[in-house]
# Entry
Amino acid sequence: MNQESHAELLRLAVEAARTAGAHALNNTARRNDVVALTAHDVKLQLDVECQKIAESIISRRFPEHGFIGEENGVAQPLPGKGYHWIVDPIDGTVNFNFGFSYWCCSVAVMHDTAVVAGAVFAPEIDELYTATVDEAAHLNGRPIRVSDRTDIAQALMYMGTGGNNPDMPAAFKRMQAVSERVRKIRIMGSAALDICRVARGQGDGYFEDGVYLWDTAAAGLILRQAGGRTEDLTTHPTLRQRYLATNGHTHEALRVTLQPYL
Ligand code: IPD
Ligand code: CA
# Structure
């Protein structure tokens, strides 16, 4: 298999994220067309359409590359060898469904076991976050950098509750523990955008138990290339993650705060 240029992979990730995101934005009149509904989550017809749009753009250019995505199920193995694309067509689906502009399209590409390029595009607020493994992270073409806050008492922390009832008591215990130590927590509803907000310094950390590789792959690379740190706190890594993402300086203190509740 060819060794692809990271710049070319990023260009394609951006094209896929922009095209899928534009399709969702142009079809907001159909934001209530539901494919599956659970107590705390929703899958939309537009999720399915945007996934297909992104994948067809990628497959046309790189027919031999693979995909890792929600529709293939959570039991699929972590990638080992070769190129794999990881697409979350609408991250923040419930927000999109309710007309709240905090949602995005996330596209990452993994070479063997490392994410090498990623794009996160939030069409309604016009934010495009990008990075490759050998270049700094950018927002709309301008370099971004994490905050330099070191004291978690001053920190703003993004968190999430996951989508399953059985996980919620533990999630709220963690939120209480973190709330008592930081300035504020926020539950915004899009893991990928939350992590990108940490990358640009609009927050100092993010944690959620029960996110998946497609929520974090692109944004995690963007954060690392902006000077931050990411860590999956599960003991045996799978697609499902306990994902801590920080500006680096707050990392240890946040991990210590979370650890008793994991
Ligand atoms: C969800 C969002 C949300 C997070 C959930 C994710 P979806 O993704 O990222 O912020 O709390 O864990 O599943 O379902 O909107 O693609
Ligand atoms: Ca998602």
